[in-house]
Amino acid sequence: MNEQDRHIAVWNNCLQIIVSNIDRQQFDTWFKPIRPVSLVESTLTVEVPSDFFREYLEGAYLHLLKSALKRAIGADAKLVYMVRPVRSEQAMVYPAAATTNPVNPTVSISTYHPSGNPGPFVFPGIQRVQINPRLKAEYCFENLVEGECNKMGITAGESISKAPGKTPFNPLFLFGGPGLGKTHLSQAIGIAVKQRYPELVVLYVTGNEFKTQYMDAAMGGKLTDFMAYYMRMDVLIVDDIQGLLGQGSQNAFFNVFNHLHQSGKQLIFTSDRAPVDLKNFEERLLSRFKWGLSVELSRPDFATRLSMLKSRSFREGVRISDEVLTFLATRIKSNFRELEGALISLAAYATLAHREISIELAEKVTGQIVCDEPGDISIDRILSTVCDYFNITREDMLSKSRKRPIVQARQIAMYECRNLIANCSLSTIGAELGGKDHATVLHACTTVQDLMTTDKAFRQYIGDIEEMLLATVAR
In this structure, is residue 446 part of a structural domain? Predict the structure, then answer.
């Protein structure tokens, strides 16, 4: 047997053992897509379609795999997975494939004996410390989807990553509701800084963790060491800073802030509310939070939600039709986290139940995750509002007229139905607006989205109509 083909023969032997222990459908689903790559001593490397695929294999068939490998290779058999690269979309990076978790250089930190503050004739010791930056490689800029909801934050973040501490955006204060990407964006800045300046010391920590560390240091008589540690940072990222409560911890953070800012170091904070709305914070800290740039991350619009779903399904190696992704983007409007959760749940459910990922399955899965908001806007209400706004009749709106004002009003109505109504497919919208097909609705929505980015008056139309619709719901 050719030595170069040995890994193929060994894997085929494993498959013969596996196929005799599970039914054919399971075998075809979970083992046929696997490709043997190499065999080095007792280690067999195989390629799998996605990381999700690998996780399921290990969860459902680990014992069977171990038994087959031991029989085919021996007691020392080992299995290594490679995730198959997807080459159809060059712009997307499969979870931070171009990078690894960043590592800080070893740094020297002055330390004191735990006897309180040293006297004037007591010299500190020097301790060399390896600081874990606590940055996750998948939270890179390449895996961020840009939209109107986060464009300013991403632009500021990219500027900071090129010159940390030397831009007007210091501190950068990112705020917004849960699941809008604050943690991802703040860590993306840290990762980009480490890629450009490996010698800089970057640390990601939450406000609550800082408070806990401060309390531990205070009780252990190591406050001086604690302060020396934080004052050694070049980029300090504090997530959920609203958790930094307590006079002692805020006083310590105030001194850390002053030292780093005056030393030209970069500070990045995130919060679930704007600086002006933070409660139980010292006024001197609040004023410093406002020194740089405060950016609100808002709820993503339909186009951004759809782009995120396409990117995430690509990264997961899951093929989902545009119709299903459009349904998810229409159904779930609140934040990125719920969108990702629905997508992963849908893929997992379809895989475990051996079902096709369809609109019906998406409806079932999202129904367990998302509750409809009270006062949902209907197609009828959107039609009435758009007709009133442009002073046209409903008959004109639903006719086959190609007059520009009527076509434009019809396209806006389609866009608003898609953007504002949960559980409403393209086919349903088309049927209600003059019997149009889903391709016509999709084209209309794309046209409106394009015009909104280039035509200020058109953006005003959309803003006015949505304000009218939301006002009627509120009543």
Answer: yes
Q: Is 48 helix (H, G, I), strand (E, B) or coil?
A: strand
* Residue 316, SS3 per DSSP: helix
Task: Say how far apart CA 9 and CA 6 lie, in whole Å.
Answer: 5
Q: Which of 227, 245, 238 is nearest to 186 (CA)?
A: 238
Structural domain count of the chain: 4
Angle 352-354-356 (CA atoms, 0-180°, nearest 5)? 120
Strand duo 43-48 + 35-40: pairing: antiparallel
CA distance 307 to 315: 12
Rounded alpha-carbon distances, angstroms, from residue 132 to 25, 128, 226, 374: 45, 13, 15, 45
Torsion angles phi and psi, residue 230, rounded to 5: -70, -30
**Coil, strand, or helix at residue 409?**
helix
Domain match, 148 and 258 both: yes
The vertex-262 CA angle with 162 and 163, nearest 5°, equals 5
The answer on pLDDT for 371 being more than 80 is no
Q: Which residues pair with 129 in a beta bridge?
A: 107
CATH number of the domain encompassing residue 28:
3.30.300.180
For the chain, the maximum distance between any two Cα atoms, rounded to a whole number of angstroms, is 91
Q: Which of the two residues, 276 and 88, has the higher pLDDT score?
A: 276
Strand 202-206's sheet: what is its strand order? 202-206, 235-239, 266-271, 172-175, 293-296
Same-domain status, 116 and 57: no
Single out the residue of 392, 425, 200 nearest to residue 323, CA to CA: 425
**Do 429 and 410 contact (CB within 8 A), yes or no?**
no
Tens of pLDDT, residues 407-445: 999 999 998 888 887 656 677 788 788 888 877 888 888
pLDDT at residue number 85: 55
CATH number for position 353: 1.10.8.60
Residues 285 and 328 in one domain: no
Residue 257 and residue 1: Cα distance in Å, rounded? 67
- Calpha distance 281→207 (Å, rounded): 12
Q: What is the three-class DSSP state of 117? A: coil
* Domain range enclosing 395: 379-474
The answer to whether residue 102 is domain-embedded is no
Name the pLDDT band for 97 (thresholds 50, 70, 90): very low
Amino acid identity at 93? V
In-domain check, residue 205:
yes
Residues 267 and 310 occupy one common structural domain: no
Say whether both 168 and 255 belong to one domain: yes
Q: Are 76 and 204 in a shared domain?
A: no
| 38 and 134 housed in the same domain | no
198-to-28, 106, 168, 418 alpha-carbon distances in Å: 46, 11, 22, 45
Task: Please state, in angstroms and rounded to a whole number, the distance separating the CA atoms of residues 226 and 212.
Answer: 11
DSSP 119: P
Distance CA 328, CA 425 (A): 10
